[in-house]
Design brief:
By secondary structure, the chain is α+β, with helices and mostly antiparallel strands. About 15% of the residues lie in helices and about 40% in strands.
């Protein structure tokens, strides 16, 4: 083979290789640049963490979740009677013949972060009117590592009594404020703590020395076990020297455990709790049931969200 023939032959092999190397290098450089830009872009557009909890309520406490603007959440919460103990057993079909409390309520989204709610409990015939505001949202880049939502409620006990306990109408009023801190640690685990303050102008039960003001701390969590099901737990501790020292009646910390199921627009929670009352205005001040005495009950919570803004269907996730 002559020299010029060898040169053409080698060029035929070498040039495509050089060209391919340049193209691959360019592709790698472009890919690296794109990754860096994407990373910077992601930092600038850190998204809020969604669905820390599936519902605005767990069992006892509310969550950091709010109802989206122009959406209406309808709630039905029920507590049956004692499963065991002196008031339970077969004679009451393990509490299913009785109801210790029933709550029917509504939550409406004034904005995506601000809700107004209204509800009524059987226990003490309590009427509630409240506001709930999502102050902080956890972000995906952890610049804001937790969500913070504040709750404020006013309660009124309108029922008539034959005694003079309500000689002053303001004695019927109660106030509750709470700050809820929550973090979604993973797609499966979310936890929250909630310091709160309760003011009962006339504390129930009507016993000398009962405190009008109670500070408390709640802790709750949700562990997702399947795509649509999770285990939820809830606990609250009222800081009350009166309740700690009282023997008649004896007070206990309210607590609960349950299963949460999501079924489309519904969230259904089936639970066990030693708290008879559903509202924190009542259960923080007056939980007299003890687990080891069989004084716990089956309960459930059903929530259903209605989208009243047809331009934003499916905004509640």
């Amino acid at each position: 083979m002559k020299f010029y023939q060898k040169a053409v032959f080698l060029a035929a092999f070498i040039l495509p290789g050089v060209t391919g190397y340049a193209q691959n290098k360019s592709a790698r450089d472009t890919s690296a640049t794109d990754s860096l830009l994407n990373s910077l872009s992601a930092d600038e557009k850190a998204d809020p963490v969604l669905a820390t909890f599936k519902s605005t309520r767990l069992i006892l406490t509310e969550t950091t979740e709010t109802i989206k603007k122009n959406n209406l959440n309808f709630l039905v919460v029920h507590r049956f009677g004692d499963i065991a103990g002196a008031d339970g057993g077969g004679k009451t079909l393990w509490g299913l013949d009785n109801s210790s409390d029933i709550y029917i309520g509504f939550e409406y989204g004034l904005t995506n972060n601000l809700d107004i709610d209204f509800g009524r409990s059987k226990y003490e015939q309590l009427l509630e009117l409240g506001l709930k505001y999502a102050l902080l949202r956890q972000t995906s880049d952890d610049k804001i590592p937790f969500a913070l939502t504040v709750v404020g409620k006013t309660g009124l006990k309108p029922y008539s009594v034959t005694t003079n306990v309500y000689d002053d109408y303001t004695n019927r009023l109660n106030y509750f404020v709470q700050a809820i801190f929550a973090r979604k640690f993973s797609s499966r685990l979310s936890l929250q703590v909630a310091p709160s303050f309760l003011r009962n102008n006339l504390p129930y039960p009507y016993i000398a020395g009962n405190e009008k003001n109670i500070f408390s701390l709640s802790a709750a969590g949700r562990l997702k076990i399947t795509k649509r099901m999770g285990i939820v737990v809830d606990y609250a501790h009222p800081f009350s020297s009166f309740r700690d020292k009282s023997n008649s009646p004896k007070f206990y910390d309210p607590s609960a455990v349950g299963i949460e199921m999501e079924t489309g627009g519904h969230v259904f929670t089936l639970n066990l709790s030693n708290a008879q009352a559903i509202s924190p205005i009542n259960y923080l001040a007056d939980t007299e049931s003890k687990w080891t005495k069989g004084q716990y009950r089956i309960g459930f919570t059903i929530t259903r969200v209605f989208d009243l803004n047809h331009k934003h269907k499916g905004t509640y996730k």
